[in-house]
Description:
Blueprint: H1 2-60, E1 67-74, E2 77-85, E3 90-99, E4 102-113, E5 116-126, H2 128-131
Antiparallel strand pairs: 1-2, 2-3, 3-4, 4-5
Amino acid sequence: MGSSKIIMLSGVYLILGYYLVGFYQVERTNSHTVEAVANSVQAEQLARTGVNLSMTRLGEHLGSKSFSTQNASMSGGSISYVATAMSGNYSKVTSTATFNGRTITITAVMYHNGDRWVINRTYVTPTKENIS
């Protein structure tokens, strides 16, 4: 009678062990996914900051619709942004930001409206590592 209880308890412990290993694997996968999404969101926010810095720079030099590549570092990431002139009162700004290996590029088309620049369209382009 005693040996059957030992076998029964061993089976229960074995089943519980399998469940715990499964829970640990799910937790690791979820943790990795959350970290990847957080890094992508931070990279996108930094790229949007590059667009805002471009608007500020264009606003300081109202006669110019373009400027060469500018670089900035903030919040543990890096930003590179450039403005190129388009026809009419339009300018295209491309801002690329990298944070913890995640890279996002935002392209914004702006137009000059009187005394300020206004964003007409914005395009977000993730890199392949952000899609996986």
